[in-house]
Design brief:
Layout: H1 2-15, H2 21-27, H3 43-58, H4 62-82, H5 92-114, H6 121-129, H7 133-140, H8 151-161, H9 166-178, H10 188-210
Helix pairs in contact: 3-4, 4-5, 6-7, 8-9, 9-10
């Protein structure tokens, strides 16, 4: 009976091991040392990146690495601005920001390389957006596959057809909307694209009638 009573406490202790970012960094300095710690600039992005790195450390899947890649990009974007700021005190802060910025470039290169052979369609599409033509062909080859049954991926496929086949684009966007579940956040770009296409069609019909 005593063992059963203690079990929830033990489980809770495992999940609550790291209550703060500082405690996480103390035990896992490799996740944090290259970053601009103790700096008000990019604090939110830095904290998000540290915890995502920890998630990747615990479960080094392609999906977690991709999340880390995006978190690193957000951190890098913030640092590119912060590195230009001249601190009124503690001049070394700018040096740390620049060092952290260079580290972010290296981290993105490493993660991109590690994800180069990933078969996750979200990652394949990302590589396509980065100019990888092989990834483009890989992604398009998945059309009709259940792997693309996701609103974001239907939007990605629609973006390819938007200048080639308006009817197909509309069908893909409507199908993408149908994949959302109740209380899901809808990607506003799907609605914007639908509105634009319907406006263009209405405008085209008006011109035909006038002509």
């Amino acid at each position: 009976m005593t063992a059963l009573l203690l079990l929830p406490l033990l489980i809770s202790g495992c999940f609550d091991r790291y209550r703060t970012t500082d405690s996480l960094c103390n035990d896992n300095p490799q996740l944090c040392q290259p970053l601009n710690l103790n700096d008000g600039q990019c604090r939110i992005q830095r904290t998000n990146l540290i915890w995502q790195r920890y998630d990747t450390l615990q479960s080094p899947t392609d999906q977690q690495k991709f999340k880390e890649l995006k978190a690193t990009q957000e951190y890098q974007f913030c640092l590119e601005y912060a590195a230009r700021i001249e601190p009124t005190e503690l001049k070394q802060r700018k040096t740390k920001r620049i060092q952290a910025l260079h580290h972010s470039y290296d981290a993105i290169d490493r993660l991109t390389q590690e994800l180069q052979s990933s078969q996750d369609p979200h990652i394949i599409f990302y590589r396509w957006t980065q100019g990888d033509q092989t990834a483009k062909q890989q992604f398009l080859a998945l059309e009709g596959n259940t792997k693309l049954e996701h609103p974001e991926l239907q939007l990605a496929l629609a973006s390819y057809y938007i200048d080639k086949n308006k009817t197909k684009t509309l069908n893909l966007l409507h199908h993408g909307l149908s994949l959302y579940k109740a209380n899901d956040d809808i990607n506003i770009n799907i609605l914007h694209t639908l509105a634009t296409l319907y406006y263009q069609q209405k405008k085209h019909r008006s011109r035909v009638c006038v002509g």
